[in-house]
Amino acid sequence: MNSSTPADLSGRKVAVPGGTGAVGEGIVRRYLTAGADVVVPTRTQERAEEFRRLLGDAATDRLHLFVHDYTTFAGAEQLADEMVSRLGGVDDVVAPIGGWWAGRSLWEIDEADWQSAFVGLATAHMAVARAFLPRLSPRGAYTLIVGESAVTPIPGSGLVSMEQAALRMMQQVLTAELDGRQRVFALQLGPVATRLTGAGDPDQVTADQVGEVAVAASASKEAGREIRMRSRAEAEEALDLLRGTRSAAPGTVLAVSTMEPKDGRRADLLEVLAELAEQIRAEPGCLHYSVHRTRGEDSGPLLVVQMFASIQAFTEHSAKVAGQIPRLGALLATPPKPPTLFEPVPLGDGTAVDPLPA
């Protein structure tokens, strides 16, 4: 993985519900390594002791194991209150809450399948988000761990795909509703190499690498977004993005647009931009997409910043979104204008200025 200096999260207070799982273990290790205080709820004291033994030397006095059931609204609220009471606050949450279900087509499921594989997991995620987001510090991040089944239907495991797709939309809705006040990420994972699965495919990300990207998201100032980590190469790209080490190559195009919403239509405009974000970020040539406002203001113009790998990629992007211009125009105080395009400026040593903030 990227050899940049790891983040220093000393003093940060991080909750990892689901942290005792195989992927969660890597996340907990990385936050402890970064210096954070980490709260991990477990169902029993025996499980807490087993997890501490599993972490070995990583289980410092900054690991706080709470015996607690967080999977209901009341339980998650109590966990958040207890964390604030014991540690003095919450900075970050990483939620590798999940499970697997398989064996039946959707028309063959029974009520027990539905309740356990969809309702139970979705409720746990909703309960944790509802309890912790209002308590999250402004510098922190809320990170959902989502499987690739969210975008790839898996016959016989449809309830898992449906629940994971709901989590993807949860990240998008929270981002739109928070409107820049807090950052919400979704790390979309393919198969992960863990202590339970073994090394497997050498291109698979490991549980520790998932943790490394989650730590980088917490430490960064990057706006919340979905980050694909289906291979080690994508994990490297995610680290470069979050650490601000990805430089702009020659030919890179930065497109900047200012959008002034009509009176009373700002929320509608943000909703459309959030919807387009998923589509644009999925384009092969898109390197960055974010929306900004004037610092501290909940009204006024919005700045849309996009980066593409080449002018050809930008041209292809423009063709794909052309059909959205009338929709955007109906929400703007003035007719939409083409974005201003920028390119990297060579420096004396032959490198280029990265046009994106770190």
What is the element string, with H for helices and E for strands? Answer: EHEHEHEHEHEEEHEHEHEEHHE
* Shape call: globular
In order across it, which strands form the biggest sheet?
3-2-1-4-5-6-9
Q: In whole angstroms, how far apart are the ends?
A: 19 Å
Provide the domain count. 2
- Summed up, the helix count is 10
The CATH class of the largest domain = Alpha Beta
CATH superfamily of the largest domain: NAD(P)-binding Rossmann-like Domain
Q: In terms of per-residue confidence, which ranges show pLDDT below 50 for 5 or more consecutive residues?
A: none
Description:
By secondary structure, this protein is α/β, with parallel strands linked by helices. The chain folds into two domains: 13-243, Rossmann fold; 253-342, 2-Layer Sandwich (Alpha-Beta Plaits), CATH 3.30.70. Helices cover 39% and strands 18% of the residues. The protein is built from ten helices and 13 strands. Strand 4, helix 4 (111-132) and strand 5 form a beta-alpha-beta unit. The longest helix is centred in the middle third of the chain and has 22 residues, at 111-132. The protein is globular and about 65 Å long. The protein starts with 12 loop residues before the first strand and ends in a 16-residue tail after the last strand. The mean pLDDT is 88.
